[in-house]
């Protein structure tokens, strides 16, 4: 597996991975209406361009195929962390997370934050995050539950 900085040429593969992962991996935690609303986020061209232009983006590749990606916003906020549906439970999220945490440490940040799905919450807890609050996010008129989480990097 190769982890490298993402670039604009990765964008279409990132968006496809985003929708495929939500559709197949998150289906046990969210109903079909919620899944559809969430994955519709890939249609927001401006948002994805903003991610690519202003966030620290990494991609994980295995034999040339994108296995996952992760983005860091504002220096210490994990905005997106997705692993391809065919590469679940192989340590890819952990490797990308470790890469991101090292970047945050280099930036001398004291905490790392994320708003994570029901599906991702156990992973983030294993990485040492604690839940700050449960929140409801409304996407296209549909409510989705997620969790504001934080990790103290000084401990």
UniProtKB/TrEMBL annotation:
InterPro entries registered for this protein in UniProt: Acyl_CoA_acyltransferase, GNAT_dom, N-acetyltrans/Recomb-assoc
GO molecular function annotation: acyltransferase activity, transferring groups other than amino-acyl groups
Keywords: Transferase
Classification via PROSITE patterns: GNAT
Record-annotated N-acetyltransferase domain positions: 1-154
UniProt xrefs under Pfam families: Acetyltransf_10 (PF13673)
Protein name stated in the entry: GNAT family N-acetyltransferase
């Amino acid at each position: 597996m190769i982890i490298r900085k993402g670039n604009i040429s990765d964008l279409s593969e990132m968006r496809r991975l985003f929708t495929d992962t939500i559709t197949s991996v998150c289906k046990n935690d969210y109903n079909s209406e919620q899944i559809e609303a969430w994955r519709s986020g890939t249609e927001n061209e401006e948002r994805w361009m903003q991610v690519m232009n202003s966030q620290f983006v990494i991609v994980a590749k295995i034999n040339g195929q994108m296995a996952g990606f992760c983005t860091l916003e504002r220096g210490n906020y994990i905005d997106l962390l997705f692993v391809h549906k065919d590469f679940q439970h192989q340590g890819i999220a952990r490797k990308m997370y470790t890469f991101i945490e090292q970047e945050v440490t280099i930036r001398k940040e004291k905490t790392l934050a994320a708003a994570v799905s029901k599906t991702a919450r156990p992973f983030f807890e294993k990485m040492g995050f604690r839940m700050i609050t449960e929140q409801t996010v409304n996407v296209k008129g549909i409510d989705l539950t997620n969790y504001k989480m934080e990790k103290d990097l000084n401990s």
